Amino acid sequence: MDYTRILKGLIAIDTTVPPGRNYEQAIDYLEPLFREVGFKTQKINIPRENAEGLADRVNLLAHRPAAGKPRLIIYGHIDVVPAEGWDAFNPQIKTGKIYGRGAADMKGAIVGLLLGLNSVKHKDLRYDISVMITTDEETNQKSQVLYLGQFLQPLAGTYFLSLDSSFGYVGITNLGVIQMDINVKGKSVHSALEHLGENAVEKASLLVQALLALKQQVARRQSSVDTNPESGLKKMEAKLNINMIQGGLKANIIPDKCLISLDRRLIPEENIIEAEKELMDTLASVKGVDFEITRVVRIPPIPPIPDPIIDELDAIIKEVTGASGKFGIMGSGDLPPIVDKWGGKQFSLGVIRAECNIHAQDEFAYLKDIEDLGKIIARFVTPVTASS
Question: Which is nearest to 170 in space by CA: 333, 3, 380, 356?
Fold first, then answer.
């Protein structure tokens, strides 16, 4: 399998979200490739009502059934974040790296999967395998993934391997997340008549001060779960960040509104209901500020799964690469709580490294990591033998 040619072709399809470009073109590109490696395929058109009202959300499912064997569902997504300031959809190979938007996050991992499945297409597998290639992971895909559940039965007790992850170790849990938009209200007047108005930006600054005080408390919360040393941390850590403030029209106008957007990351030991109450109590403690919450995103943290399959994958990674580990991921996603709701067990592995510039200019993946991912998957899905 000429995987570099395949990956170049996939990266060259601009699947930027928003708005969600060329999804069907990318799915049509991948579908025959999954057939070539011995899988039956289903192209799924997601109804608007299951895609936040959006059209043209096309997903791909691929199956290699094996009745009576443990169920394994492998997850990936084709959408990528926007790219500006570089030739992101003209993939280039230089010094053992492939450059292009989505090379690491996560089209490289999809091609690594194909590479691994191709090497075992004539062998018996130890799992009843399905692959799900999804859209809108970079924005909001919860409703879409839930819709796919009807085509992926059985789900209870199923192992889910997410390939939207880092290379070289098993991801055993993710951070939870609360994202919140806070609209602060004021009254607009000429700046010289500020005594007749109410400055929403200045009122918002009072909320920001209270949130920054809470941030100091949150930052002291550390998980018992180790995280990848590449992150610069030893343990998973809770986070609270104020990532956007928007307000004001002109220097001589008192602003009547100001938007604050915050991002709160939860370690596995935290409770999302309690964390949201803590945020709301902090905001309510600031007197004399009129505000409303206009958007909340909630993804609860899920504790690591205690299962021998984690140790098996960890051992295979070490055989292939010489080193491994089992770490918590300092990121979040829609999939873990859905898998938990379905009664499944999730873990992860991919081709992302800290230096790969995902979501930034000159994103790349190492070719050897893609090749090694293929080897790891091939070993993982085939029965253990005396020579293995």
Answer: 380
